[in-house]
Specification:
Bound molecules: 1,4-dihydronicotinamide adenine dinucleotide
Radius of gyration: 19 Å
Order of helices and strands: EHEHHEEHEHEHEEEEEHHHEEEH
Strand content: 15-25%
EC number: 1.1.1.37
CATH superfamily of the largest domain: Lactate dehydrogenase/glycoside hydrolase, family 4, C-terminal
Enzyme class: oxidoreductase
GO biological process, one term: lactate metabolic process
GO molecular function: L-lactate dehydrogenase (NAD+) activity; L-malate dehydrogenase (NAD+) activity
CATH architecture of the largest domain: Alpha-Beta Complex
Strand order of the largest sheet: 3-2-1-4-5-6
Shape: globular
Keywords: NAD, Oxidoreductase, Tricarboxylic acid cycle
Length: 308
């Protein structure tokens, strides 16, 4: 299994580190546009191999995509995060240009690759990859729900004063502060609905803190998070590499599922060696259906800013 990670910044390097540490693939190639940066990150990570006990080979390249040839999976983390004073259109313009260019290079050298899209605004960037890559739709997966669900579980465990291994929960819809939909109605503590443990005030706290999870970290760190995003990507790559058929909420191209078409949104799916093996349709409450539709409308508006 060969994995390429484009963007050797905070998130890309974290992805490479977790993938290597889990020791399930033979090779990780880091690509960056900054001269020597990917090579440096790869060398630093390789010097942890004997300390951390992994055999994955990590290499880096400054933009030479021939080194990525034959990748089974590619993760796109290249792009800029939003900065103060920037309009949404400017952010989309810059990241869309990067993601489109990177996608073309990846597919040219690895025509059978499965792409995991991380760059923001992620649901729109995943949509862009669908529209420009020529890859079948089961080979394009946006990463948002895996991270947001981990943040949901963190907040649930905090409110329940329970160990995280006791709780289960999932976040679907959009990867944005307003469009995220933590499914409180389906969250459980050892199979028992969490709603039977938490007051309404606690439930509202968990949902709100989950939705602003990324923003909270950006405020604390001065930039966006990298450990949990990297770990979330590594779980998705492992599901493909090891054909786990694991159910993970991911941003996928919908074709009538959840009442939506021609849009990428977070929904639960079975992830295995073929990428997306099946979209799982779960029963939502009326309020959840409404929130899902509202999130879709907002993502559609952002998608409208794309120029192909
Ligand atoms: P960063 O600035 O640390 O790293 C980005 C890297 O991309 C830089 O090293 C830069 O040189 C590289 N790059 C830029 N253009 C490139 C190109 N054309 N080819 C190759 N490399 C290129 O940023 P960070 O924190 O790693 O975030 C990366 C992206 O991931 C951002 O858009 C961020 O918003 C997004 N993100 C998404 C998450 C999600 O859940 N989907 C979670 C966290 C971040």
């Amino acid at each position: 299994m060969k994995v390429t990670v484009v963007g050797a910044g905070a998130v890309g390097a974290s992805c490479a580190e977790y993938i290597a540490m889990k020791n399930f693939c033979s090779e990780v190639v880091l690509v960056d546009i900054k001269e020597g940066f990917a090579e440096g990150k790869a060398m630093d990570l390789m010097q942890t191999a004997s300390l951390n006990g992994f055999d994955t080979k990590i290499t880096g390249t400054t933009g030479d995509y021939s080194k990525t040839a034959g990748s089974d999976v590619a993760v796109i983390t290249s792009g800029i995060p939003r900065k103060p004073g920037m309009t949404r259109e400017e952010l989309i313009g810059i990241n869309a240009g990067i993601v489109k260019d990177v996608t073309a290079n990846l597919v040219k050298h690895s025509p059978n690759v499965t792409i995991i899209v991380v760059s923001n605004p992620m649901d729109t960037m995943a949509y862009l990859v669908h529209k420009t890559s020529g890859l079948p739709k089961h080979k394009i997966i946006g990463m948002g729900g895996a991270l947001d669900s981990a943040r949901f579980k963190y907040r649930l465990a905090e409110a329940l004063e329970a160990p995280i291994s006791d709780v289960d929960g999932m976040v679907i819809a959009a990867h944005s502060d307003t469009g995220m939909l933590p499914l409180l109605s389906k969250a459980t503590r050892n199979g028992v609905p969490v709603t039977s443990f938490l007051t309404e005030e606690q439930q509202a706290y968990v949902v709100e803190e989950t939705k602003v999870g990324g923003a909270t970290l950006t405020k604390l760190l001065g930039t966006s998070a990298w450990y949990a995003p990297g770990a979330a990507v590594s779980v998705m790559v492992q599901a493909i590499a090891c054909d786990q058929k694991k159910m993970i909420p991911c941003s996928l191209m919908l074709d009538g599922e959840y009442g939506q078409s021609d849009i990428c949104l977070g929904v639960p799916a079975i992830i295995g060696k073929n990428g997306v093996e099946k979209i799982v349709e779960i029963e939502l409450t009326e309020a959840e259906k409404e929130k899902f539709a509202t999130a879709a409308a907002a993502v559609r508006e952002v998608n409208g800013d794309l120029k192909f």
